[in-house]
């Protein structure tokens, strides 16, 4: 039996933000909390949403305390804030950090205790009460967080998560028009993040025919549009394709899971505050190159989905070419190719390795079982820029 989970109501397409007031009214909300970041508060988008809701009689509060790679303390602060307000709906507006925090706030506003009590690795409490209703509106094409049941928080040396179906949104609105103003470097990082979701979910030991279909279509859309989206952010077709690709990748990894790339990326964000998308991007070719022998057939599929012909290649040959293509793509969109380029000292590799090994939830999905020696070799290769192909 295959179990596949999806958010209840999804709206996709250019201009679909217009459905927001109707959806808020359908949820019978009167007081909405919009959780966003300072940029979207300053550029007027958050205020635009508030105005749309106020015009139909719904009060709104805007909280723009979101920060990139949000630490546990920010999660605690926002949950505490939500409990002090008489809100009956939470709207997440922004990139992955805003979406993750909005889901967290909606789910924990009704619970007892602190956020740390519900962390996956160390928490001791379970979510028992129903969540506040929530609407997620991503403004980047990357994390896919809007369709998942997980919220990621940075700790001192790595990251941890709160994961529960109470974090699933009641409504998702994915409007590519909102991504037009995203700068090139963020477009690149979030886009490779989405591509990583699609690739890791495709090779995951938990992949199913359903998740595989989502993964491959996501790879087709992202690999063939990301360069244009980075170079010409006003390109409507490229932005639309990236938006759909990110959304499909989110559905794919929600059902099949991510694996070693994410496990190794979490400590980079936790210890060195590297953006999650860039952490995934720098690691992607090295991790996939190391585990290549365990998923050659699927890497050939990925290579073809990226737009290359592999009809004359063996599975092994195509898998090698796939890793090279991923390296080229990461370079083409301007993301640094090694850990050295992020000013990470070689002396940190041991701590990174030990922190990554704690991410058992992620590592167990890898098609190749990885031990501490394996993880250390991958970090070492990523530091020196030496691939396994």
TrEMBL record:
GO molecular function: alcohol dehydrogenase (NAD+) activity; metal ion binding
Alcohol dehydrogenase iron-type/glycerol dehydrogenase GldA domain boundaries: 9-176
This protein's UniProt keywords: NAD, Oxidoreductase
Domain Fe-containing alcohol dehydrogenase-like C-terminal: 187-382
Keyword Lipid metabolism assigned: no
Required co-factors: Fe cation
InterPro entries: ADH_Fe/GldA, ADH_Fe_C, ADH_Fe_CS, Alcohol_dehydrogenase_Fe
Family in the record: Belongs to the iron-containing alcohol dehydrogenase family.
Name used for this protein in its record: Iron-containing alcohol dehydrogenase
């Amino acid at each position: 039996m295959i179990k596949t989970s999806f958010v209840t109501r999804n709206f996709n397409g250019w201009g679909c933000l217009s459905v927001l007031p109707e959806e808020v009214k359908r949820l019978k909300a009167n007081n909405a909390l919009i959780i966003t970041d300072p940029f979207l508060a300053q550029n007027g988008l958050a205020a635009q949403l508030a105005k749309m809701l106020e015009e139909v009689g719904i009060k709104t509060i805007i909280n723009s305390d979101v920060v990139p790679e949000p630490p546990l303390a920010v999660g605690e602060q926002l949950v505490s804030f939500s409990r002090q307000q008489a809100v009956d709906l939470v709207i997440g507006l922004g990139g992955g950090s805003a979406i993750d925090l909005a889901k967290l706030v909606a789910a924990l506003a009704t619970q007892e205790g602190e956020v740390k009590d519900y962390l996956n690795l160390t928490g001791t409490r379970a979510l028992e009460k129903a969540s506040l209703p929530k609407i997620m509106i991503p403004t980047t094409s990357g994390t896919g967080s809007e369709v998942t049941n997980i919220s990621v928080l940075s700790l001192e040396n790595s990251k941890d998560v709160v994961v529960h179906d109470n974090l699933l949104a009641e409504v998702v609105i994915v409007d590519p028009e909102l991504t037009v103003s995203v700068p090139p470097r963020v477009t690149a990082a979030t886009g490779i993040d989405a591509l990583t979701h699609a690739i890791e979910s495709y090779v995951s030991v938990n992949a199913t025919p359903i998740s595989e279909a989502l993964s491959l279509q996501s790879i087709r859309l992202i690999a063939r549009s990301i360069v244009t989206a980075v170079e010409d952010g006003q390109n409507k077709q490229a932005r639309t394709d990236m938006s759909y690709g990110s959304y499909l990748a989110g559905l794919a990894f929600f059902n099949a899971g991510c694996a070693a790339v994410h496990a190794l990326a979490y400590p980079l964000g936790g210890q060195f505050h590297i953006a999650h998308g860039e952490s995934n991007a720098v690691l992607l070719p090295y991790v996939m190159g190391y585990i290549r022998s365990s998923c050659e057939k699927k890497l050939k599929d990925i290579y073809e989905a990226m737009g290359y012909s592999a009809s004359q290649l063996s599975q092994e040959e195509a898998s090698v070419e796939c890793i090279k293509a991923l390296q080229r793509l990461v370079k083409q969109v301007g993301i640094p190719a090694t850990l050295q380029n992020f000013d990470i000292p070689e002396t940190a590799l041991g701590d990174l390795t030990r922190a990554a090994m704690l991410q058992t939830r992620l590592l167990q999905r890898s098609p190749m079982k990885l031990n501490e020696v394996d993880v250390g070799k991958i970090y070492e290769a990523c530091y020196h820029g030496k691939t396994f192909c």
